[in-house]
Amino acid sequence: MSKIFDPENRFPAALSDGDRPSGGHAPDSLRTGQDPGMPTRDEIEAKSAAIDAKLSATEARIEASMSSMRTSFAEHTAAINHALTKMQGDVSAIQVELKHMPTTWTMITTMGGFSAAVVGVILGVMSFAADRFDGGFAMGSGLSAPFEAIRAENRQLVAEQAARIDALDRKLDVLLDAVRHNQASQHP
């Protein structure tokens, strides 16, 4: 038994072996229209024409959509090609500007030379400072002997002055004692 597609369920669900078409002809019940539940050939052809019309309309809509998509694709492709052409022009302009720039190797060697010069100047300044510092120590050790002699002489002078001040102090004490004693003897 073979199944037949019928969305409105107007055809029988299956054809019996006796109703099976032979030689490409419809069964007798379809040709004569004797079965009241069976559609006539005109109804079938009308439905077939309606389905063909729907298919043609669907194909036309699909073709219109495809045409619209092709047009949109062509517009987008043209816009992309325009943008690419503009970018290529920009890249060419950048390349022309970069031709005047020094190469990476030139920049690296320049930076290396500059760094070596800076390090050399720093080392030179440090060497000069170390030499002056060393000279200062050497001079200081040579000058310390005369300063020690001056210090010793100053210590001696300070000691002598301290001794004189003590002697004057004692003399003043004797004088003051004499003056007090004299005043005490005058006032009984």
Describe the structure in brief.
This protein is mainly α and about 190 residues long. The protein is about 80% helix and about 0% strand.
Describe the structure.
The protein has 188 residues and is mostly helical. The chain has three domains: 1-39, no CATH class; 49-101; 108-188. Helices cover 78% and strands 0% of the residues. It contains three helices and no strands. It is rod-shaped, with a radius of gyration of 65 Å. Mean pLDDT is 81; it is low at 13-17.
Order of helices and strands: HHH
Residue share in helix: over 70%
- Class inferred from helices and paired strands: mainly alpha
Please give the alpha-carbon distance between the first and last residues: 175 Å
Q: What composes the largest sheet? A: none
Low-confidence stretches: 13-17
Count of beta strands = 0
In terms of DSSP E residues, the strand content is: under 5%
Multimer state: single chain
Mean pLDDT: 81
C-alpha-based Rg, rounded: 65 Å
Number of domains: 3
Apparent shape = rod-shaped
In DSSP terms (H or I, runs of 4 or more residues), the helix count works out at 3
Protein traits:
single chain; 188 residues; mainly alpha; 3 domains; 3 helices; 0% strand; rod-shaped
